[in-house]
Write a structure and sequence with these properties.
Elements: H1 6-21, H2 27-40, H3 43-52, H4 54-63, H5 71-88, H6 97-116, H7 126-143, H8 153-163, H9 167-177, H10 207-229, H11 233-243, H12 251-258, H13 262-281, H14 287-294
């Protein structure tokens, strides 16, 4: 939670008061200002156009203040959206600038909240953003305003269907929204001063296992090359182009290169695989390893 100092609060109130007291624009005058800015880059016209609709920024910024971010920063981000709207607005579309600007203001505020609400990145897809900004409302409706009540499985399913996200995403987002970021260096309060990070499980392989796996892969690659060398040049070409490339050649393409039918290519491929399997089985007794690591089953 951010807390503005006294001087900042005074400045914010003064800015908001000026924004809300700025005169509204008539449609014709608004269009005139938009045309001047678009066609001649008249900065006075831009200033008047933007200043008149700063009230929209203030109004929408207040809708996002419950995320705990400074109202002054929210207003600044909303103003960036307003300026973006002014730079992109096309007077020829015959829409009111205010209608067009609202979308840019809201988008700018949402991006700012997602970037700064937590040190952990939140809501990368459109569906996740919708979940982030709608979960509080839907949760309040379902739980009748009880913020301490956990969502039931039925409620989770309902929210997921309404917003078009997975149920697991609803569960994760609820956990994120209704908890706070904590440092991994926070002490848990026991006598040993154990930190949260001391209890995190490292799921990666230990150095010894990584070394063993690396050596194992080198050995298997050596055996594979030996198996390939036991094939005829034509069989070796077929295996390489059918099994060892990121994008395998088709039977027809290889057949055209060798001057044989694609059915004959298939027969030669199967014959070559049988030869390789016979050799590798003398080295590997584990059929699952033979299939998964060598991809010749």
């Amino acid at each position: 939670m951010y807390i503005d100092d006294f001087n900042t609060q005074i400045a914010n109130k003064e800015y908001i008061r000026n924004a809300m007291s700025a005169p509204m624009l008539e449609k014709d005058h608004e269009l005139e200002l938009a045309v001047k800015w678009k066609e001649t880059r008249d900065e006075k016209a831009l200033h008047e156009l933007v200043q008149s609709y700063t009230r929209l920024v203030v109004s929408h910024a207040n809708k996002f203040k419950h995320y705990g971010l400074p109202i002054g920063d929210l207003i600044q981000e909303g103003n960036i959206g307003l300026m973006e709207a002014a730079s992109r607005f096309d007077p020829g579309m015959e829409n009111r600038f205010s209608t067009y600007a609202i979308w840019w203001i809201r988008a700018s505020l949402q991006d700012y909240v997602l970037r700064n609400w937590s040190i952990v990145r939140t809501g990368t897809t459109a569906a996740q953003k919708s979940l982030f900004f709608n979960l509080r409302r839907l949760r309040a409706q379902i739980s009748n305003g009880d913020s301490n009540e956990m969502l039931s499985p039925e409620a989770i399913t309902s929210i997921a269907e309404e917003l078009g996200v997975k149920e697991t995403e609803v569960v994760k987002m609820e956990s994120r929204l209704f908890s706070v970021d904590q440092s991994l260096n926070n002490v848990m309060g026991d006598e040993n001063n154990t930190e949260w990070q001391d209890l995190l499980l490292d799921e990666s392989q230990d150095p010894e296992m990584r070394s063993i796996e690396k050596d194992s892969k080198k050995t298997i690659q050596k055996w594979l090359m030996n198996a390939l060398n036991k094939l005829s040049p034509r069989e070796r070409k077929i295996i390489k182009e059918r099994r060892l490339l990121n994008k395998a050649y088709t039977l027809e393409k290889i057949g055209n290169e060798l001057g044989i039918s694609k059915e004959r290519v298939r027969q030669l491929e199967n014959k070559a695989l049988d030869k390789m399997k016979a050799y590798l089985k003398t080295k590997l007794s584990d059929k699952e390893t033979l299939c998964s690591q060598l991809s010749i089953c």
